[in-house]
């Protein structure tokens, strides 16, 4: 597949994934606002922090390394061996579910049954849901490698909608069921997700469309583990790369979910405060997750396909290098401007957003400060996602292994900083620690990118430099909206709130007009791709 075709399909995949994340986050956003009126903060804290952490940890440790390794390189490979390797995620998931399930049940603090009933059933259900989801991993990787955009959108949309309908129904009818509600909803979510992928490939394989596309797998039976005479069960090169990524993924999970591990294992916040933190965290990450994560996932595939892992820039096809450098520069500019916009306007509108969303329970206390800090953290998330996406797509096995040592040291420092900052600043300390963590990771990735392109004429890191005129507009917008918040928000009635919102809308419009006038290359890239 030509690099230009890969770019086009990757851009469509990123756009579709972004829309999918919009659906997922908006639904979660609305669901939290709804359940706040029916359920306690403590129950929401246990579900969204404790049990979701169990599920995400099992899934991440069991499959992340396999995804990274099996999506590297060309889609033309021995798919029998790749599929065999991917099925190893299931026993690995069973292992982690059993070990971590015992930890969650017997070593961690158990919530008060009168406030959060059926905790044990919740732990079993969320651990089981992780195993069920891993059953669909070979199907997911095969679809992602061949850029099946529509399948991913439909599968995850159906699963999210099904989960939300069941949750809302049970919350209204049986609020006393407690964790049974979220356990059943989680099991339904993963079951629908896996079945969508299985049903699609049962219909697709052997069809005229599959034959026309020369799809590498001809029968459904080929998607199951199989032995080939006189050949190894798996591709050992992929297996060794998986092991390298596994060591890295273990550390990355600690860094990604670090604050939840600190909350869960060190009890620095009670379950009610954990619930408030998680609600604010979901609100703060609404834009970050539905834009930055799809870009990172999709363009990792693009860079891995266009450039060969482990080769220097001189040994690559120069047309592909030029395209990759141009795309990286524009992606950096895109996420930087999105991050700056959220940081600037998020500061002045955090309290108003929380007051509208959850009332005084969220808008009083630490809630507004949490969301303001998160607005800054979004900027770090934006840049880190793209720089690491390129770095991980190009690193050879030895470089990945070396980076693991960096991640190990960073994990230890991050956990220590989280613990101390939380004691000093409460839940805000978690976000400050995350900013520090992302800053270090960005420094490492940008150093790698600079070193990679130093022997070429391409300088993609210039994408991190916005135009002076646009920077000036951002500064003026920050000052004007901050004064507007002091004068009109948020206890002076709805008319004052509308004036504050109108002020922000005018500043945002001025920012966007300046962006369209000064960043013409980026605008053309977004429109064309």
TrEMBL record:
The chain crosses the membrane at residues 12-31, 43-62, 83-107, 119-141, 153-174, 180-205, 330-354, 374-396, 403-421, 464-488, 494-517. One of its GO terms (cellular component) is endoplasmic reticulum membrane. Keywords: Endoplasmic reticulum, Membrane, Transmembrane, Transmembrane helix. InterPro entries: RFT1. It is a multi-pass membrane protein. It is found in: Endoplasmic reticulum membrane. It holds the Pfam family Rft-1. The keyword Isomerase does not apply. It comes from the Eukaryota. Its main location: endoplasmic reticulum. Pathway: Protein modification; protein glycosylation. GO terms for biological process: dolichol-linked oligosaccharide biosynthetic process; glycolipid translocation. PANTHER family: ENDOPLASMIC RETICULUM MULTISPAN TRANSMEMBRANE PROTEIN-RELATED (PTHR13117), PROTEIN RFT1 HOMOLOG (PTHR13117:SF5). Belongs to the RFT1 family. Intramembrane glycolipid transporter that operates in the biosynthetic pathway of dolichol-linked oligosaccharides, the glycan precursors employed in protein asparagine (N)-glycosylation. The sequential addition of sugars to dolichol pyrophosphate produces dolichol-linked oligosaccharides containing fourteen sugars, including two GlcNAcs, nine mannoses and three glucoses. Once assembled, the oligosaccharide is transferred from the lipid to nascent proteins by oligosaccharyltransferases. This is Protein RFT1 homolog. It comes from Urocynchramus pylzowi.
